[in-house]
Design brief:
The complex is a heterodimer. In chain A, 35% of the residues lie in helices and 26% in strands. In chain A, β1 and β2 form a beta hairpin. Chain A is globular and about 50 Å long. Chain B is mainly α. Classes of the chains: A alpha/beta, B mainly alpha. At the A-B interface, α2, β8, α3, α5 and α6 of A face α9 and α10 of B. The structure holds adenosine-5'-triphosphate and magnesium ion. The site of magnesium ion has 4 residues of chain A, from α1.
């Protein structure tokens, strides 16, 4: 089936991986995102920080269309997400097309969201086998390699309920990677974990970052942000208040709200 | 891409250390339960005396029971009852799944249709529905597709289509679908919303998500009450007399009883068979529950 579809345009180095233009998001009367502009270049590790309720998760979820945006445009890998623009009007794409667009981004959730009725390796194989129609044997081989990569080679046959939080999150990362995404989105991947388990997940993400994966990460781990980010975004009340080089933003915040937030968390 | 720094987590079997002689396990003396033994003896004694009384009681006519329990008429009745149960449940399950998907869809027409279906079939007695399906061929002698005010395109004699067996199955299945739809809806609602999002984030299509992710998880919640409904359906098949459909187990045993003027032994025959089929269904349910409980029922709380 894949063969007869036109291949998605492969983004080039010059083209931004994610490009947000004037995004607004309303939940009823709640204005969760206010005129957000953001560009993530290929290979960039963009980390979003900010107080609770500032719209970080919402922003991430808009990128892979788990939320419908109220205004603005989202471009992922050069493609307008969720709509076809014809004569200046936005035509909603068919669910099938939206599903296809989502395949190019991987997402890791705060609460893992592994499929509880499948073992670790089945979780990882699910996408390749049932979305990309990869032969089962190939998918199993790749999944085994991914499990090894996240340090869980021995636990392929365990169900999520038999894994610790850190192990579950590493399986979740492997599951997202199995789809060979070009952009990875992480929504507070360690905030549901006990402190001693945070490290093992951060290590996996760090290695992923150094392998050149483009990603956007929401986190409360400021130290980790400083270490891996090469693009830091500070959000407050639905708006991007300050962004730029992480050292600059963290050490010499220019905005008073950034300063107030950092003085609390550092 | 050499990311193998994280140490592999190893599962150390609990007894491994013991086998190596490193750990001396506690010597545990289980609690004694003298009350349980006493209760067991008392209940066995009661059961035995009751069984003895029933077995030797002449009012039960066990000779007639033995004569008819495997009579061809009865066996045929058993076969039809099982067939009605299975086919009606299959019809009900398919419709119920469709109804749940329709109710969850963003198409208002589908949602409304599903709502009306459940409203109607749950809101009228099944006996009335069966009577109606029995009369269907009288009420609508011919089913035909024709243009408005125009000539007939295709037509069919209804008696060929809605035979008593079909009327019985449709009547039972449609009625049951409305109940199952509610059970299924509860099952799907019990699933965490994150499951749907995780599947969407992988780029799965809606149909695949329903089949691969949502249905197997809902099944865990759906199977026990659906087992209940199946057993209910088994006994509801005795109502097909309303159609009238006259080959099921209850009709067969009643007919013999009326001929012999001996209701009791044939009630026992019917009871014996209904109980046997129910037991069989329970075995099936056990395996279904085990299958769909995988991944979840692996950790049990300690019972005290
Ligand atoms: N489904 C929803 N319905 C209504 N309001 C919502 C919904 N989801 C989020 N919001 C609101 O939108 C705002 C942004 O929420 P969001 O979850 O994006 O914050 P966040 O920055 O991720 O916070 P946290 O750090 O606590 O995760 C909040 O005010 C929240 O109450
Ligand atoms: Mg959040």
């Amino acid at each position: 089936m894949n063969a007869i579809m036109t291949p998605p345009p492969r983004s080039t180095d010059a083209q931004p991986c994610v490009h947000l233009q004037g995004i607004h998001k309303f939940y009823g009367s709640v204005h969760a995102l206010r005129n957000v502009d953001l560009t993530i270049k290929r290979g960039e590790v963009c980390v979003a920080i900010g107080p609770s309720g500032s719209g970080k998760s919402t922003l991430l979820r808009c990128i892979n269309q788990l939320e419908e945006i109220s205004a603005g445009k989202v471009y992922v890998l050069g493609e307008l997400a969720g709509y076809a623009e014809i004569d200046g009007r936005m035509h909603v794409l068919a669910p099938r097309r939206i599903a296809e667009q989502r395949r190019r981004t991987g997402m890791v959730f705060q609460r893992f969201n592994l499929f509880p009725h499948m073992t670790a390796i089945e979780n990882i194989m699910e996408g390749p086998v049932h979305v990309k129609n990869t032969p089962k044997a190939t998918a199993r081989e790749n999944a085994q390699a991914l499990l090894k990569r996240v340090g869980l080679a021995d636990l392929a046959g365990r169900y999520p309920s038999q894994l610790s939080g850190g192990q579950q999150q590493r399986v979740a990362i492997a599951r997202a990677l199995a789809m060979e995404p070009e952009v990875m989105l992480f929504d507070e991947p360690t905030s549901a974990l006990d402190p001693e388990l945070v490290g093992e997940v951060l290590d996996v993400i760090k290695d992923l970052a150094s392998s050149g994966m483009t990603m956007m990460l929401v986190t409360h781990e400021i130290g980790f942000a400083r270490e891996v980010a090469n693009h830091l975004v500070f959000m407050d009340q639905g708006a991007v208040v300050e962004e730029g080089d992480p050292r600059a933003v963290l050490n010499r915040p220019s905005n008073p709200r950034t300063r107030a937030f950092l003085s609390k968390v550092l | 891409m050499d990311i193998e720094k994280a140490p592999p987590d190893r599962l150390v079997p609990a007894r491994q250390a013991d086998r190596d002689g490193a750990v001396k396990l506690n010597e545990v003396v289980p609690r004694r339960h003298p009350g349980r033994w006493l209760a067991t003896i008392l209940l066995l004694w009661l059961a035995f005396s009751f069984a003895q009384n029933v077995a030797t009681n002449e009012n039960f006519h066990w000779d007639i029971f033995a004569q008819y329990v495997f009579a061809p008429q009865v066996i045929r009745g058993v076969g039809w009852t099982i067939l009605l149960t299975i086919v009606a449940m299959a019809v009900a399950i398919s419709i119920a799944l469709l109804l749940v998907v329709m109710r969850g869809s963003d198409n208002p027409i589908l949602r409304t249709c599903a709502w009306f279906w459940i409203w109607f079939f749950r809101g009228t007695p099944v006996y009335t529905q069966l009577l109606f399906w029995g009369l269907f061929a009288v009420l609508f002698p011919r089913i035909s597709l024709s243009l408005p005010f125009g000539s007939e395109i295709v037509g069919l004699d209804t008696r060929m289509l809605v035979t008593p067996a079909v009327a019985a199955i449709v009547g039972l299945g449609f009625n049951e679908s409305a109940y199952l739809a509610e059970i299924f809806r509860a099952g799907f609602n019990a699933i965490d919303r994150g499951q749907l999002e995780a599947a969407q984030a992988l780029g799965m299509r809606q149909g695949r998500i329903w089949r691969r992710i949502l249905l197997p998880q809902a099944m865990r919640v759906i199977v026990p009450p659906t087992g209940n409904e199946t057993i209910g359906m088994l006994k509801m098949t005795s109502l097909v007399l309303a159609v009238p459909f006259t080959l099921d187990l209850m009709f067969a045993t009643n007919a013999i009883a009326n001929r012999l003027y001996l209701p009791v032994p044939l009630l026992l025959v019917a009871g014996f068979w209904y109980l046997s089929i129910t037991s069989l269904l329970m075995v099936g349910q056990y395996y279904l529950e085990r299958h769909f409980g995988r991944g979840v029922d692996t950790i049990r709380a300690r019972t005290e």
